[in-house]
Amino acid sequence: MRTFLKVLKKVLFIGVISWFGLTILMLAIGFTSLPFWGIHHLSKPGSAYSFEPEYIIFMGGSGFPGKSSLMRIYYTSKLAHEYPKAKIVAAFPGDPKKSDGMLSNISREFKIRGIDSTRIIFEPQGTNTRWQAMEIKENIITNPGDNMVIVSSPAHIYRAVKVFSSLGFKNIGSFACFERNINVSLQFDSEDIEGKAYLPDIGANQQLRYQFWNHLKYEIVLLREYAAITYYFLQGWI
User: What is d(CA 129, CA 125) in angstroms, rounded to the nearest whole number?
Assistant: First the structure.
């Protein structure tokens, strides 16, 4: 029993030290540009396409309305206006017959952005990227040589392109939904807005106010996406 307790204490000690070290490492990386470039790297496959797409694949985000879904609808709509002959394939789970369901709301959101509902084909069955791609291949884009552009979040592009490619699709482009920067100065003087004199004035430090925290979020996104890529690789899906 004593031996077991000693081993347990060592394991817990090593675990705490490792967790502490990982936390310090992630905080340190947050002050660098590495998280952004990690996201940027995952967004590159298919981005240099030069063909006119016959299909624009809107990969649904996490619920609707929601940040990721609205971003993808925004950029899908921009592409749809650029390529008016392209059909839009909306891969989003739900019941297309429900007038107040998510798919109906998505259709209305596209309509707000000037997209005719007759251009939209829903793929409502799949609940992950592999399943969605399989349903699209079987029921919508049956010719693997058709041109398509996948619209999704930057970190998801690599996995999505690889999944469609593994199913035999040949002409795959991509459009990563990056957020746009605010093109105005966000600096402020703490004294001008009656800030406390005994606290540091961080108004000119956008790295600390915004970029550091964004990079921490990027790190979590990267950890999740690399875990998903590893799982898909082990499954033989990419």
Answer: 11
